[in-house]
Design a protein that fits this description.
Oligomer: heterodimer
Radius of gyration of chain B: 13 Å
Shape of chain A: globular
Structural class of chain A: mainly beta
Number of strands of chain B: 11
Number of helices of chain A: 0
Number of strands of chain A: 12
Largest interface: A-B, 21 and 24 residues
Chain lengths: ~120, ~110
């Protein structure tokens, strides 16, 4: 069974600083996808970034990058130059790409607060 | 805006009642997923439909059911509601084989 662990229930960062949100996963599958979602206080879930297990380079999307370390089974999200609007819950998730149904498993989330 | 729509945005109902939540996926997406998000359980996958057929089932109670119609919109039916069913219910859609799911804004259900 797949498992996603986000060990940081809450994180604080100063505006314009970089922050790393941790995510570790556990799977016996060889082919899987990892991704991050942002959930602001308004409630919607916003897709941020995706990394496939066979991708050799770390994924980047603007200020977001995914630090993928396959041997350690970690997929940390790095947000550079934090902005006040980055304050939100962040969820790490993993999808099994071998079964065909692509059902993701989500972590419990990390609350990020950006201070001015 | 993800392109996924959900109605209603808020729903308040009493225990024992039945409600229907509606979801319209993004244009072109054949897969629809339903999730329940509560404080104690986190984000839980309920059920997936692909092009009208049930594809996968997660932690969905027997009191809950869903379907996807020929126009690809989906409905989640919750019956014999209990206080513990109060949660945020999300619908998400994706193109089959694509990595990301796009979430709707959610329906906040409050059972009193």
């Amino acid at each position: 069974a797949q498992k996603i662990t986000q060990t940081q229930p809450g994180m604080f960062v100063q505006e314009k600083e970089a922050v790393t949100l941790d995510c570790t996963y556990d799977t016996s599958d060889q082919s899987y996808g990892l991704f991050w979602y942002k959930q602001p206080s308004s409630g919607e879930m916003i897709f941020l970034i995706y990394q496939g297990s066979y991708d050799e380079q770390n994924a980047t999307e603007g200020r977001y990058s995914l630090n993928f370390q396959k041997a350690r089974k970690s997929a940390n999200l790095v947000i550079s130059a934090s902005q006040l609007g980055d304050s939100a819950m962040y969820f790490c998730a993993m999808r099994d790409l071998e079964g065909g149904s692509y059902i993701p498993t989500f972590g419990r989330g990390t609350s990020l607060i950006v201070h001015p | 805006d993800s392109g996924v729509t959900q109605t209603p945005k808020h729903l308040i109902t009493a225990t024992g009642q039945r409600v229907t939540l509606r979801c319209s996926p993004r244009s072109g997406d054949l897969s629809v997923y339903w999730y329940q998000q509560s404080l104690d359980q986190g984000l839980q996958f309920l059920i997936q439909y692909y092009n009208g057929e049930e594809r996968a089932k997660g932690n969905i109670l027997e009191r809950f059911s869903a379907q996807q119609f020929p126009d690809l919109h989906s409905e989640l039916n919750l019956s014999s509601l209990e206080l513990g069913d109060s949660a945020l219910y999300f619908c998400a859609s994706s193109v089959e084989g694509e990595a990301e799911q796009y979430f709707g804004p959610g329906t906040r259900l409050t059972v009193t």
